[in-house]
Design brief:
The complex is a heterodimer of chains A (237) and B (142). Chain A has 237 residues and is α/β, with parallel strands linked by helices. Chain A has seven helices and seven strands; from the N terminus they run ααβαβαββααβαββ. Chain A has a single domain, classed as Vaccinia Virus protein VP39 (Rossmann fold, 3-Layer(aba) Sandwich), CATH 3.40.50.150. In chain A, helix 1 packs parallel to helix 3 and helix 3 packs parallel to helix 4. The longest helix of chain B has 16 residues. Chain B has a four-stranded antiparallel β-sheet. Chain B has one domain: N-terminal domain of TfIIb. In chain B, 36% of the residues are buried. The two termini of chain B are 26 Å apart. The chains are: A alpha/beta (237), B alpha+beta (142). At the A-B interface, helix 4 and strand 3 of A face helix 1 and strand 4 of B.
């Protein structure tokens, strides 16, 4: 078992790592060999992959990748979130855990951008994408609208609704990402996205196969009343 | 925000994707801070393989750095030497200096505050507390 990174943050302002987060960590641990193979061993020319986590929250997933999945490999990390406090926290979590693990030689660089999904990222650039979306089915009206001027940090409830509520089938936010996925992934890029049963991951599986991505359900777990799974979507070349 | 990130981000407005002017964003009124990082020649060398050099030149120039070569440098042995633990000694003086300059520019140069403007739609975004904010107002979200 690879260690879970430490997070020091105000969980009244961001999503606290929970079962869904831990499922993604376990999933990445199982995928470690595969990821190292496609992102490093198969490359003709060494170039650091762009690793991107959307809706990063605490940043624990990105920190885990840095410390345990690619500890000795060169990589560029980018996290995004609608919530600027999450962006800041993801950078702090990374720093804290890199320091603790004593990785002294510089082999990674990280930044965090406040934006929606992958809207600000150059096409064909993302080599590894991880997304723990707001997947809980809710009324569409319960998804807060955001804009560049409002500060969701100060509206205490909005960030949590944003982290959880996914509208119809819990898929409103994830569907937007899926629409762009093929465009933003680099050749041989791969995405890991978490679903609950009510998101109908089997339907997503079929739809995404038609969009020239190789899809596989890589992990499944019952967590109390939730059935969570992760799909791996691979733009295989 | 580190300068290297300017190589990966663009205007989030979808219709700007079709315009060559939406990338890179134009960086204006930026406040820069240098944060020291350990230098790793191999890391910078491998990074060269994926950088959009013209975009980097453009942003560097806006921020006052006009010392980069106009074409992406091709370093000798850049493929065979990757496995060496430390190949700083194998680089000639000029290449080593170039990699150190790039290290300073890409990884150590942080934009703390500033503006990012899309050359296609002229929308202005802000960098605050080192975090670039590329959220759109509701009327521009598609």
């Amino acid at each position: 078992m690879l260690p879970t990174p430490e997070v020091i943050a105000d969980f009244n302002r961001i999503y606290e790592p929970a079962e869904d987060t831990f499922l993604l960590l376990d999933c990445l641990e199982e995928q470690k060999l595969f990821l190292n193979h496609i992102l490093f061993d198969c490359k003709k020319k060494a170039s650091p992959p762009l690793v991107m986590e959307i809706g990063t929250g605490s940043g624990v997933i990105t920190s885990f990748i840095q410390n345990s999945i690619f500890p000795n490999q060169f990589a560029i990390y980018l996290t995004t979130d609608l919530n600027s406090y999450a962006c800041e926290t993801s950078l702090k979590t990374s720093e804290l855990n890199l320091e603790k693990s004593g990785i002294s030689r510089l082999n990674c660089v990280m930044d965090s951008v406040q934006c929606s999904l992958t809207s600000c990222v150059v096409n064909n650039s993302v080599d590894l994408l991880v997304f723990n979306p707001p997947y809980v089915p809710s009324a569409n009206s319960e998804i807060p609208t955001i804009n560049g001027q409002s500060n969701i940090d100060q509206d205490s409830g909005a960030w949590l609704d944003m982290a959880l509520n996914g509208g119809d089938d819990g898929m409103i936010v994830t569907a937007k990402l899926l629409d762009n996925l093929h465009d933003i992934l680099a050749d041989n890029g791969v995405a890991y996205i978490l679903f609950c049963a009510r998101n109908k991951p089997d339907d997503v599986y079929k739809q995404m196969k038609e969009r020239k991505l190789q899809v596989e359900k890589v992990i499944f777990r019952k967590c109390g009343w939730e059935e969570l799974s992760v799909l791996r979507l691979w733009k295989r070349k | 925000m580190k300068l290297i990130t300017s190589n990966f981000i663009k205007c989030p407005i979808k219709k700007c994707d079709s315009s060559l002017d939406s990338y890179p964003l134009s960086y204006q009124n930026c406040q820069l801070v240098i944060k020291q990082q350990d230098f790793n020649a191999n890391f910078i060398k491998s990074m060269l393989n994926r950088l959009d050099w013209d975009a980097l030149l453009r942003v560097a120039k806006e921020l006052g750095n006009t010392l980069l070569p106009l074409n992406k440098p091709a370093l000798e042995n850049s493929d065979q030497e990757e496995d060496k633990e430390d190949d700083e000694e194998n680089l000639n003086e000029n290449d080593l200096k170039l990699l150190k300059d790039l290290h300073n520019l890409l990884l150590e140069t942080n934009i703390i505050e500033g503006e990012m403007i899309c050359r296609s739609c002229n929308h202005k975004f802000y960098i605050k507390g080192s975090i670039p904010n590329l959220l759109l107002p509701p009327h521009l979200v598609d």
